């Protein structure tokens, strides 16, 4: 096939992009989106600060815009994200009572998931809970500090009840290199969840890479997680300077792992990227395909 989404679909995978509601009026942007991608992630609109800016008061207008537009065009939806220490409103950050915070977290998960129930193929239930560096432990956050590390399990159990059809993912960055302590920490958590029957279906590897692309162990990491009995997904791919080989290596690793079910790039044109200075995406500022686009399509077997 001649587009990313159609080619990925030939092996039962999706190829998605992060989308910003504020750009849906830009015809160049939506032209590429609708031509190339068959899955959509809201870049910011489903996060806590956007959906529940004050306690118990939910706003879904911008998230709905993205969801309805995708649905009308037959594009699948990824949910991002329910529990994250960042883009978290101040009122949540200042809760110190465990029962209160547990109730607030469960209510947030349930309300947001209910809104899109049955329409989201995979949800990032918990995002970026592990610390950088060598500890292999969870990072400090209001959730860990007030509820303990068990907040992750609590979140996944609540998510399963809210929308049993959605794949429940743990999503993080810098877990692509197998030997890193952070990767090992996440691996141990997923292994523990699977062994105790805590509901988890997927690990999202963000894949924000430097110009060298994925570490040599990337495919090993994907297979090792998959061997625990979860899907893996590349959820936020971008690569500094977008070298074609770096993109091809990333995509090939996913294609080589049966349980790698899809890839999402974190934006459409370089100008849309959170790291736009590094030109890390598949389309240039005018919306033209870059060499990395062809490398990506070819790596999936398309032309
Ligand atoms: O909406 C406000 C606007 O009202 C205000 O005037 C403006 C002034 O700064 O800020 C706007 O909010 C910005 C928001 O993006 C929407 O554009 C925030 O400042 C800005 O911090 C925010 O950045 C997002 C970032 O997450 C926040 O952590 C990026 O767009 C988004 O690409 C990025 O995505 C994250 C993933 O969710 C998780 N993994 C890492 C990834 C990259 O950081």
From TrEMBL:
Domain GH10: 8-299
Record localization: Secreted
Location of the active site: 236 (nucleophile)
Similarity comment: family membership: Belongs to the glycosyl hydrolase 10 (cellulase F) family.
Full protein name: Beta-xylanase
